[in-house]
Amino acid sequence: MKKNLFGITLAGIVFVTLAGAFLHFVYELSGNTFIAGLFCSVNESTWEHLKLLFFPYLLYAVVEFFLLKREGIFFSKAVGACAGMFFIVAFFYTYTGVIGRNFAPLDVASFTAGVFVAFFTDYKMIKTDRFKAFSLNLAGILYFIIMAVLFFVFTVYPPDIPLFEPPENAALTVEQLGWY
């Protein structure tokens, strides 16, 4: 029986949107634990908020792989993750550049739209069945591993550039996070 790609995609959009919204608060609710900080936003920087899309999306990609049993899922999902995160960054810096500050409702809207962009992108790719090569699937898996490692490293040691700084103040140090 052929699985319903559209229905699975809609379920993914709902799951990632709700899980990402929940992850926004998990770090604080956990008492600022180190492990929660690796997977959840530890401050209001754009980089930290990309985790809210990335990790639930990765989890759903694994679920979708088992549900659809299709080759090439991870390549399509990697491209979708890139597209969604790029949209969030581009939208945030465009609107804050135009109006001069950030607004929480627009931040939430950019996240939600980023989730849609990610799933729309991978849906179109999966539907075409043109990205099934083993090497592409391996590249997608490698992308997710590299990005997860980058999220972990840059959470603990954020570079001194605006992407890693909360909009209103500098990024928190490891000592301020209590991870020493």
Rg over alpha carbons: 17 Å
Distance between the termini: 53 Å
**H-E order:** HHHHHHH
Shape: globular
In round numbers, the mean pLDDT is 89
* Uncertain stretches of 5 or more adjacent residues: 169-174
- Category from helices, strands and their pairing: mainly alpha
The proportion of residues in beta strands is under 5%
Count of DSSP H/I helices: 7
How many strand elements? 0
Describe this protein's structure:
- The structure is a single chain.
- The radius of gyration is 17 Å and the shape is globular.
- Helix 1 runs antiparallel to helix 5 (104-128) and helix 4 (73-99) packs across helix 6.
- The longest helix is centred in the middle third of the chain and has 27 residues, at 73-99.
- 74% of the residues lie in helices and 0% in strands.
- With 180 residues, the chain is mostly helical.
- It has helices at 5-29, 34-39, 46-68, 73-99, 104-128, 134-156, 174-177.
